[in-house]
Design brief:
Length: 228
């Protein structure tokens, strides 16, 4: 008995093996521990269906790692079929996306003297007809991005100006102009000359700094905090 105890004590005491969870396939392990045994017990999985399952797993490139993995190993596809192995490897390769090239210099610089440097104003807007509208003080200018031409739309009176907001309608032809005296003017830009369609009054008591279109509905926002 003393000799038996001596032999047991002479052995090295090893700790438990802790598997590497990052190298484990929990989905495949769950199937192997539950569904596969249940299927074999009920004798519902035939040899043909089992072969089909293996071929399908090879084609989809399923990770055939062990249930308990104690070290990292490169993922390989089970089977000796070179055609299925190459096809599964090709399936896992993701196509590279082309890098977007952002220009480091501006394409064109437009002079904008007398522009109002106010964060709460919207004095620049690009319409769907490729016309850029900008207000410089009390004057609204239009710049055609197609041919580079510039035209004056309107110059408001001093007691009404300056222009505090601009917004093109979805049709790219009509434009709403918000003024410092709380008025909103609707202009038709056809022909480059400009034609006043309507003047909206009474909606605000201070400057109109925000405009937006939703179809044929125009929404305005004033400095006093009211939205009409």
């Amino acid at each position: 008995q003393e000799q038996l105890l001596r032999r047991r004590n002479s052995r090295q005491n090893w700790d438990r093996f802790i598997p590497n969870r990052s190298a484990m396939d929990f989905g495949y392990a769950h199937y192997m521990l539950t569904e596969r045994n249940r299927g074999n017990e009920n004798n519902l999985i035939s040899r043909a269906s089992e072969a089909y399952r293996k071929r399908l797993a090879e084609a989809l490139g399923m990770n055939r790692t062990r249930i308990l993995a104690f070290k990292d190993r490169p993922s390989t596809v089970a089977g000796n079929d070179s055609s299925s192995s190459s096809s599964s490897t090709t399936h896992r390769v993701k196509p590279t996306k082309p890098h977007r090239k952002i220009p480091q210099t501006s394409e064109r610089i437009l002079d904008a003297p007398d522009i109002l440097h106010d964060y709460y104003l919207n004095v620049l807007d690009w319409g769907s007809s490729n016309l850029l509208s900008i207000s410089l003080g009390s004057t609204v200018y239009l710049w055609n991005a197609s041919d580079g031409s510039t035209s004056e739309l309107v110059t408001v009176d001093e007691e009404c100006g300056p222009v505090t907001s601009l917004r093109w309608a979805p049709d790219g032809r009509n434009i709403a102009v918000g003024l410092n005296n709380s008025e909103v003017q609707l202009w038709d830009s056809a022909g480059g000359g400009g034609r006043l369609l309507r003047t909206l009054r009474g909606g605000h008591v201070s400057r109109v700094g925000s405009l937006d279109w939703n179809g044929h509905i125009l929404t305005t926002g004033g400095m006093e905090g009211r939205i009409v």
